[in-house]
Amino acid sequence: MVIFRFINLVTFCLLSILLGGCDKTPPNQLQQVKASNTLKVGMLVGPATYYQGHSDEEGFEFELAGAFAQELGVKLEVIPFFNLEKLFENLARGQIDIVASGISFHPSRDEAFRFGPYYREISQKLVYKQGRQRPRHYGQLEAPVTVLANSHHLLSLQEAKVENPNLKWQTTTLLDQEELLLGILNEEIDYTIVDSHSLALFRRYHPNLSIAFSVTQSDPIAWVMKRQADDSLYALLMPFFATMQNNGQLATLEEKYFGHVTRFNYVNTVAFVEASKQTLPKYAEWFMTYAKQYDLDWRLLAALSYQESMWNPRAKSPTGVRGIMMLTQSTAKSVGVKHRLKPEQNIRGGARYLANLISRVPDGVSNPDRTWLALAAYNVGMGHVRDALKLTVQQGGDPNSWADVKKRLPLLTKKRYYRSTRYGYARGDVAVHYVDNIRRYFDALVWLDENGALPFSSGE
Question: What residues are annotated to the active site?
């Protein structure tokens, strides 16, 4: 019997060797990813992480994960989730490789999951609807706080209850973060907690959300993986994020998705949303017509116009620029505008001028950076923008990156920098704020348009 078993074992091993080895070690996680040619990444759907844009998938985490997949030489497969419970369940079961969703570190999570290197910091804000009595600490809350189940927000409330025994909350798995914020606005929910970057994005078009107080000040966020002995994929996160940090790609993504929303002005935002519904309809058809003619997004053209004139066709500055697109006399002449106070002519001229500026941006610059540089040139002139590009190169930055050029434009106000440039002094700091404002207006118009909140149809 023993001999028979031995012969069977030898036979099995010989067959195994022929098929790939008797005691072949199972493939590690990295080998599995490579073999499948796919990196499976779980993401919460939302404006700060991953969403379906106008023509393609977009989002800070989506692009970051795409860069990691490219580094590995595999395809990115995004697996979207709408609540944290399902996201973490799938990670624990090994059905996804990584969670890339702006997850903040907490010691209790570290027991079951592994956090990669920290790459951003956020804070948690307790929010309520503008117009209600502002609570300045937990003791002044008049109702329970509603938060996402399994979130860091819930962990923060549990910790706060130690010193605030009367603190109450309720959790939900049915709503996502944006739906919670809409619940605040619709007065279906009294209070919730939201991460600072998500709130900044949401308040572009819903300014009536107010911050009661900061729940936390500085939470590090990172990608999350299942806790296991296999380090093959996890070990690559540190060098990847180090490279992204050192080559400026991380800063470029930060600028693309969050760089223009760091400032919030309640009065200004309310006025813009109101004007979008009351004033914009008078001129929307012309924005659409001439944006299409010059291959522009009409909402970008309208956002530029609001920044220039607040959609006032008779606007006039002390320096002589006039009209709804605020064209100088020489610029108006160059784009065929005879009467700057006639809004249709002015919009047509502004569209033509912006398209011309975009075409004059150096060829190496791709969108959206190309558009942001053209908008800066609309404000300070292409000559000054080219000076900023040269300064960027001289200081070791990337002239094709708006994030890098944005840092150098304000230097044009300082003599030690502008005296060596071709065009000299310029209010580059103003140009930076100018572009940020237009980007906020543009984002808001896109959201209002795509959610049917404008009193007309754009056909987009």
Answer: 308
